């Protein structure tokens, strides 16, 4: 009797699975709140240099004080990073009109700090720590540090979860997220903020990895696609929840605390979770695996069937023991065919993540209400995933993957040519591009899982997912090039998906193609399944776990 047969015996889709999947999916609703939190806590408010301190003795209105202290930029707004060395009293004679600098109109940096317009958010890390002008690059660095934590968490939690179990590491991830998020909210310096955000990124990796592992390993193959799709939409709904929470909580510290406190509750109820019996059997703990299966049988109302399981049958032990092997990531590059496929997939994953976070983490540039654009960007994922799923089923994986990337790149490039004051057109193009990139992510998971043979599937998924995290880390830093060449970030963000869409053409089609693995390679099935550490944001389709 194979393990799948034992799962059917105790109930593979009973009350236990329903409650188990539901409780594991609820925290996924809050994943987007941390992943996209930077859009709100690091919102850059309108600002300008503070006026000279000695002007408080004069009876001047705020407008007059600003007029004689801060020059105007070409758009007629107060300059952000410069002010007059001395008050320009003669400008008051121009009745508020812009005047050319006189002989004494020498400019200097903001010696007395900055004044911020805090109408959208009452406070952000930008206004608290003056991360503007010469320090404006620190905003992008904060997001890069967070994504670095996501990458580090995958490396650490991936190996630990295979050694100590999914449930134990999930408990640690929930607690780490709660504590790191709370400490982030009370950070007194920017350095501490980055440190604790790094911890949040690590926790997010552990949460994603172990949540989806526990979901997949307790349900039969026939319902994994549906379950994975429903779980993936939890992340999409989470983007809408973030916009709603941020709309009512406009202080960055309270907002961070609000999206972190629920993880204490998740930590408490996660003690009820059962360890994966597959993992227990794989780790030569048959007695514990049998006890867990009996507990599930009792919960599903199949106590009699559960009592019949006295020990793991020899056939099942053989099934679990066949997972031994010594293949590694290096095997992804040994043969020419595998090498080309891995390189093409790496380019696809890196550029998809790179362009996705380049759009999703720079919402202010569209000139639209930040809360509205967050809702729109989150909602577009719903139809995008539906459309790409239909295309993959009827058109094929390769044209769907390539088409989604090319269309995304074209819309981003067209946006460069649209004038800034055409906000509606710019927003519509950006939404289409973001939807295509979300669809590309959906296609990536299924397509990559089908391309790699069973023995190398988890190695391959780990590698390409790591490439995606690298892309996410680099994306914020590209925005800094816009300070010198305003159109350069758009060119890079748009060019990368187009190039990767071309690379996707060289991948083989997998629609209606059977995957055949040799008996020698099948013995390494378990080794591939053990390398779950790099699994990130499995939002839609978990059929790649079908070989577990």
From TrEMBL:
It holds the Pfam family Sugar_tr. One of its GO terms (molecular function) is transmembrane transporter activity. Its main location: membrane. It comes from the Eukaryota. One of its GO terms (cellular component) is basal plasma membrane. Keywords: Membrane, Transmembrane, Transmembrane helix. It is a multi-pass membrane protein. Gene3D superfamilies: MFS general substrate transporter like domains (1.20.1250.20). The chain crosses the membrane at residues 141-160, 169-190, 196-220, 232-249, 255-273, 340-359, 371-395, 402-418, 424-448, 460-481, 487-507, 528-546. It is found in: Basal cell membrane. InterPro entries: MFS_dom, MFS_sugar_transport-like, MFS_trans_sf. Residues 98-512 form the Major facilitator superfamily (MFS) profile domain. PANTHER family: SOLUTE CARRIER FAMILY 22 MEMBER. This is Solute carrier family 22 member 6. It comes from Nothobranchius furzeri (Turquoise killifish).
């Amino acid at each position: 009797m194979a393990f799948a047969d034992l799962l059917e015996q105790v109930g593979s889709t009973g009350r236990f699975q329903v409650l188990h999947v539901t409780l594991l999916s609820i925290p996924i609703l809050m994943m987007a709140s941390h992943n996209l939190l930077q859009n709100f806590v690091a919102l850059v408010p309108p600002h300008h240099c503070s006026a000279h301190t000695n002007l408080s003795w004069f009876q001047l209105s705020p407008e007059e004080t600003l007029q004689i202290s801060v020059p105007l930029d070409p758009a007629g707004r107060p300059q952000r990073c410069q002010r007059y060395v001395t008050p320009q009293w003669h400008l008051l004679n121009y009745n508020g009109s812009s005047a050319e600098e006189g002989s004494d109109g020498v400019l200097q940096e903001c010696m007395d700090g900055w004044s911020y317009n805090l109408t959208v958010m009452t406070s952000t890390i930008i206004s608290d720590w003056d991360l503007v002008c010469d320090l404006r690059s620190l905003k992008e660095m904060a997001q890069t540090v967070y994504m670095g934590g996501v990458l580090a968490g995958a490396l650490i939690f991936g190996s630990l979860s295979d050694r100590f179990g999914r449930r134990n590491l999930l408990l640690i991830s929930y607690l780490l997220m709660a504590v790191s998020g709370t400490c982030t909210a009370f950070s007194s310096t920017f350095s501490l903020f980055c440190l604790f955000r790094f911890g949040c990124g690590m926790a997010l990796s552990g949460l994603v990895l172990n949540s989806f592992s526990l979901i997949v390993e307790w349900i039969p193959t026939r319902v994994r696609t549906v379950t994975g799709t429903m779980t993936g939409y939890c992340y999409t709904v989470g983007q809408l929840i973030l916009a709603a929470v941020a709309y009512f909580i406009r202080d960055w510290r309270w907002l961070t605390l609000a999206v972190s406190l629920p993880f204490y509750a998740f930590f408490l109820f996660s003690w009820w979770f059962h360890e994966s019996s597959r993992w227990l059997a794989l780790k030569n703990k048959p007695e514990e695996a049998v006890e867990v299966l009996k507990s599930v049988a009792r919960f599903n109302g199949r106590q009699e069937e559960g009592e019949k399981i006295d020990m793991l049958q020899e056939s099942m032990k053989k099934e679990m023991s066949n997972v031994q092997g010594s293949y590694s990531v290096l095997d992804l590059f040994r043969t020419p065919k595998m090498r080309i496929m891995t390189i093409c997939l790496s380019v696809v994953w890196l550029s998809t993540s790179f362009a996705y976070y380049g759009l999703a983490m720079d919402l202010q540039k569209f000139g639209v209400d930040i809360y509205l654009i967050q809702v729109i960007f989150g909602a577009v994922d719903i139809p995008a995933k539906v459309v790409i799923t239909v295309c993959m089923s009827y058109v094929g994986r390769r044209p769907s993957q390539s088409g989604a990337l090319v269309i995304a790149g074209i819309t981003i490039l067209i946006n460069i040519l649209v004038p800034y004051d055409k906000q509606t057109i710019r927003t519509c193009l950006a939404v289409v591009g973001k939807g295509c990139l979300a669809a590309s992510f959906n296609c990536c998971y299924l397509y990559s899982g089908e391309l790699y043979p069973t023995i190398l599937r988890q190695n391959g998924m780990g590698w390409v997912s790591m490439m995606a995290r690298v892309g996410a880390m680099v994306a914020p830093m590209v925005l800094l090039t816009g300070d010198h060449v305003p159109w350069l970030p758009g060119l890079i963000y748009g060019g990368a998906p187009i190039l990767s869409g071309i690379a996707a053409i060289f991948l083989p089609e997998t629609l209606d193609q059977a995957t055949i693995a040799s008996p020698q390679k099948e013995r390494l099935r378990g080794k591939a399944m053990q390398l779950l550490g790099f699994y990130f944001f499995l939002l839609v389709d978990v059929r790649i776990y079908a070989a577990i």
